Amino acid sequence: MRRLWLLFSAVMLFSFLVLGWIGTRIYQEMPPLFDKVVTTDGNTLIDSGDVSAGQNVWQSLGGMEVGSIWGHGSYVAPDWTADWLHREAIFILDRWADADYGSTFEELDNEKQAQLQARLTALLRTNTLDTETGIVTVDPIRVDAFESNLAHYSDVFSNGNADYAIPAGAVSESSRLRNLSAFFFWTSWAASTNRPDESVSYTNNWPHEPLVGNRPTGDNIVWTGVSIIVLLAGIAGMAWWYASKRNEEEEPLPPESDPLALWEATPSQRATVKYFWVVAALILVQMLLGVITAHYGVEGDGFYGFPLSEWLPYSVTRTWHVQMGLFWIATAWLAAGLFIGPLVSDHEPKGQRLGVNVLFAALLIVVVGSLTGEWLSIQNKMTDTVSFYFGHQGYEYVDLGRVWQIALMVGLLLWLFLMIRVLLPAMRKTGQQRQLVILLAVATGAIALFYGAGLTWGRHTHLSMVEYWRWWVVHLWVEGFFEVFATTVIAFTFMRLNLIRPRIAAAAALLSATIFLSGGIIGTCHHLYFSGTPTVALVWGSVFSALEVVPLVLVGFDATEDLRRSRSSQWVQRYKWPIYFFVSVAFWNMIGAGLFGFMINPPIALYYMQGLNTTPLHGHAALFGVYGMLGIGLMLMCLRVLVPGREWKDGLLRFSFWTLNGGLMAMCLLSLLPVGLLQTKASVEQGYWYARSAEFMQTDLMQTLKWMRVPGDTVFFLGAVALVVFVAGLKTGHSFRRAE
């Protein structure tokens, strides 16, 4: 165990040193926020503070929940960076074609088009920033292009656009519309302007836009090859090691009866039950919002003819859908930790029940307050400043206003206090179980503290730095340390049931945590390739994100072991469905995180695929398939232990398990995957803007494929309803078998 702890510590130290160093490089080399944009004849196009003000407008109207910037955000509206760049390019080319040849650019022959494209590339890619004054100088024709784009976006956001699922009045004030356009211009400028003394843009030539010479860089292609080699080497090494270690020590024979059959729930454990009722309610509401959000993709201003967008526009339903998903998953995990604490230490501190109830009230306040604030912000009921603190921050997965963020952080610290005080007696004991308890305490501390990364930015923080820290929350907090926490909790559960020896459980959990984090911490950078970051983020991110996939290749072995344990004795059958959900976690880890994740993560793949439907394909399969299924499994395990002596009616659980998994797979394979692959083809052949455009997404084929989500979504939703009915039945007694 000592060697494993040293390895775990070394991985953590090395990984965070590298990630921190990459953060400093991003800060030093991120796209400059210019002070002004002026023309060569002395006119001011963009004044001081306009870009930052525009960023705040974008945040308050929903930010990443209304289209995307640099490929990060939602998928119905365009990517505003790519859309602005293409519109500006076409405007300039048409103006030149008319002046030189009396024609539109599209009507010219290839030779003349190539001549104008070369001229445009030189115009847009030449860096004219004066670093001393912060002034960018542009040709007067770009003023006309800016005004043309401003007129277009003013129409989209003030009058609404059904194809983009944007309602009328999203932004109506002319000054805010101009600032918003200035922000879009800046993101496009960074995407098409070369870094000083280099031949690539600040976003590593993303998005793909042949008109201005935005094509994959050499680093993009080379490091894709390296990442694939690293992946293959990692898989080979892991398989070799796994084969050498299997069956070194036999697991114990299961006891004749359930070790927890006589367990009597403590007051704090009974107090956690209300968390699970809330989890069930949030699951149901989140699924409903998901159905509505998906439908907006085909009918952007209504729901089967009903003008629902007047009250719940796409930006609201998608925000709530994402936020509620995070809320119920996190609540299930936090409650599972509080429930399992007394099982770990066989001790309940004085006042633990009160602490559990206070935390519950705090979480309710955060949920209700943040969702209300987000609606008010999107409905223009708040100023841009107030919105940041109480409304909508505009950043996907951390949409909630800063005040609610701080409140959630306080709640997590309270949870950490409650967990440590209940685990402390077990940490003081000797024996192999102590190692597992210490790892659980470490994971608990990381979950509580690393959410603090979401508090590192302010209203005017540079977007590249916001992205760096945002992915600390989304990737490290959710995908990293929650993974360690869950692995430890599951290992302890099997150990407590005497189905695995304490030493094996502790060693397996610690080794799994080390392997996951060895790729996962630095692998955070695979989200940052094209977010205004230097090449080092692409180099390190591509290699270590490939290593993230390595342990997922062999999770099937662990799933098989879990299935075997579930059948090892008659009494273990009462834990069948929680264990089955744990098994499904392994399956979706392999498919959603491994297969669908690596499909988009190599730099050359992500260059064309970022922000297409291949992203929600990975997101749904990994977020719900892994973390959602795990949350449900933990909830069911706790509810099973709560009343160990009574048998469950498992008909609804059986239906729920298979329909949730089957519906999720149908959603992925019938709709998200084919839509994403067709978008990728369009992105490669014509440019990223086209793959996200209404012109492409509203074709008959794409509309049909989007409608193909209905079968999977329906089956999936029915599974969620069955789960909620079952959990409610545990309260009413309808989910228990009658005593014979």
Automatic annotation (TrEMBL):
Alphabetized UniProt keyword annotations: Membrane, Oxidoreductase, Transmembrane, Transmembrane helix
UniProt-recorded Gene Ontology molecular function terms: cytochrome-c oxidase activity; heme binding; nitric oxide reductase activity
InterPro entries assigned: Cyt_c_oxase-like_su1_sf (IPR036927), Cyt_C_Oxase_1 (IPR000883), NorB_cytochrome_c-like (IPR054309)
Domain of life: Bacteria
Residue ranges annotated for the Nitric oxide reductase subunit B cytochrome c-like domain, each copy included: 35-208
Coiled-coil ranges per UniProt: none
Keyword Magnesium in annotation: no
One Gene Ontology term from the biological process aspect of the record: aerobic respiration
Record-level GO cellular component terms: membrane
Name of the protein this chain belongs to: Nitric oxide reductase subunit B
Upper taxonomic lineage: Bacteria, Pseudomonadati, Planctomycetota, Planctomycetia, Planctomycetales
